[in-house]
Amino acid sequence: MLLEVKNIEKSFVEGVPVVRQTTFSVGENEIFALLGPSGCGKTTTLRLISGFEKLDNGEIYLEDDLLSSTKKHVAPQKRGIGFVFQDYALFPHMTALENVAFGLTDLPKHKRKVFAEEVLCRTGMGDHQHKGPAELSGGQQQRVALARAIAPEPKLILLDEPFSNLDAILRESTRKEVRSIIKKAGMSAVLVTHDQEEALSFADRIGVMNEGRIEQIGTPEEVYYQPKSKFVARFLGRTNIFEGEIEDSDIIETKIGHLKLNRKAKGKITCSIRPEHLTIESPNGTSDKYQKGMIVAREFKGHDITYHVECDGERYIVHTDNRILFEQNDEVVVRPLESAVVLER
Ligand SMILES: Nc1ncnc2c1ncn2[C@@H]1O[C@H](COP(=O)(O)OP(=O)(O)OP(=O)(O)O)[C@@H](O)[C@H]1O
């Protein structure tokens, strides 16, 4: 593993831990995202890795070298880690090109600007390379900061909400470019974000953080489709939660009817099923193992439609493609297409 974070802990105020017993590792050429709501400790975790904060407990290793522990603290500039922080401070008296070229000390002088220009072009800033930070918009400065951090090709790069100031279209294209630069150069990255779509599309693996702890680590598909907790299920996108009691079975009775579970369970259980794993049908001709419900709201989004269906006082969300057309107040049955995932907590 390239980066190993072992049981790290940090409090700013005694007795109020901000990062608790956090453990994860990042492999060679891997992009790892720390995803969680505002205030859950993501930035602090990144600052502990960069060395801008000292930890209270635990250890951080890069290529088996100890960077941080309670006894040792390697200075940030000596860690060989690149970073883009939320406040992306660029050198104000330098142009965009000079900002990016500045860190390329490993290259011969005449090659620095050529390479810096190439990276700026790839982050869409080629036309603005001779402007100073004051002449650039927030989003443009953010792209220069990204180029500056990536250009020296550090083994590991830390990215704290690096696309937050870009509009939706620019965000997607910049994300793709940055991902491809990181992958091609063989770098690894830790991305901090509260945007689930960003984590799902950018990272190879995601650690979902809640109140200072990582609740689950997995590939985007695992954390999205196999969440371990209610928090992870809900934070990764819309979902339908069912609660009930069963006797050693993989079927639960719900208000939409029988629902198959991904495994056998017993006692009180909670399970989750994504809206796209449910569908709706006209009640005519379907067997009576599915309960009737009514469409109470509909969100048409062009390529797909989200229906809100009320069954016996409970609301469910169903996501279908735009060929399944119903109107508000239509009577329907909700039918599962996949099994529901039993949550551990
Ligand atoms: N230097 C500090 N001194 C005191 N408290 C701090 C300090 N830095 C962070 N905190 C507190 O630690 C908690 C976690 O902050 P952190 O910035 O790590 O969260 P985050 O998940 O990155 O949130 P955001 O996405 O809003 O940046 C917050 O309650 C914050 O107020």
UniProtKB/TrEMBL annotation:
Transmembrane segments: none annotated. Keywords: ATP-binding, Cell membrane, Ion transport, Iron, Iron transport, Membrane, Nucleotide-binding, Transport. Gene3D superfamilies: 2.40.50.100, P-loop containing nucleotide triphosphate hydrolases. It holds the Pfam family ABC_tran. Residues 3-236 form the ABC transporter domain. GO terms for molecular function: ATP binding. This is ABC transporter ATP-binding protein.
